[in-house]
Design brief:
The chain has 9 helices and no strands. The chain has helices spanning 2-14, 16-28, 37-56, 66-86, 90-108, 115-132, 140-165, 168-191, 200-217. Helices cover 74% and strands 0% of the residues. The relative contact order is 0.11.
């Protein structure tokens, strides 16, 4: 119990810039923020704060921190995607987020495979893509299926990892990956299907920030394994 409290206290201090920047975003951006430089900066700040967290919680350019390195790259491209979406460059933003998901997939790994879980995810996503295809232009008709495949794979790998490890960080990361899909699904139904959701931006951004927070926090246990205590008599 004490170790859990100590862990929470230590991580919360390092995550303070993230919490503060999220509060600033929701406090200052009260309407559709697209196209404005200052709202783009505020929108990106929480992701920049998560990049800072990944660096200060323990980081090095070696094999022991490979997951941290990959998730940091995912956050960098996510930040780029946020900026591009906020200045009405949706296709380019989607590409940037697609690259971010490739890094997240690499970070979560392919063991165990759990292909049945993947199949259960790909089937409904394929049905969704077929359903919205008639609402897409000549660019998005190519980009959206590719992006959906990437984010579905990201969710698959996060869930498979959580089911195998069953630790708090892997389970919370899987929750974050699920919220990432939900956030993007909300964007899809409002943008492609013109569904008027109450407080759509609030729903999209809350689920998105929690998703990125959970993914970044999953690096808290990354690093070299602790040295084993020897029980041999001297």
């Amino acid at each position: 119990m004490n170790s859990s409290l100590q862990f929470a206290k230590l991580q919360s201090l390092k995550l303070a810039p993230f919490f503060l920047s999220v509060v600033l975003y929701f406090a200052l951006v009260r309407r559709d923020p697209q196209g404005e430089t200052w709202t783009t900066v505020l929108k990106c700040l929480p992701i920049v704060a998560l990049m800072l967290y990944v660096l200060i919680k323990g980081f090095a350019l070696n094999k022991h921190y490979r997951r941290s390195q990959l998730i940091l790259l995912g956050l960098i491209f996510s930040c780029g995607g946020d900026a591009l979406l906020n200045v009405n460059l949706f296709p380019f933003g989607m590409v940037s987020f697609g690259v971010a998901h490739i890094f997240y997939i690499s970070a979560f790994g392919w063991r165990p495979l759990n292909w049945i879980l993947g199949l259960c995810l790909y089937v409904p996503v394929t049905v969704f893509v077929i359903f919205v295809a008639k609402y897409l232009d000549e660019i998005l008709i190519i980009g959206v299926p590719i992006y959906c495949a990437l984010i579905s794979t990201m969710l698959w790998r996060a869930l498979a990892r959580a089911l195998d490890a069953k630790s708090f960080l892997t389970i919370f990361c899987a929750v974050g990956a699920t919220l990432f899909v939900i956030s993007d699904a909300l964007i899809a139904v409002t943008m492609f299907l013109s569904v008027a959701l109450p407080g759509a931006r609030l729903q999209i951004m809350i689920t998105y920030y929690i998703a990125q927070f959970a993914i970044a926090l999953s690096t808290a246990d990354d690093g070299p394994a602790p040295p084993q205590c020897s029980n041999k008599n001297k």
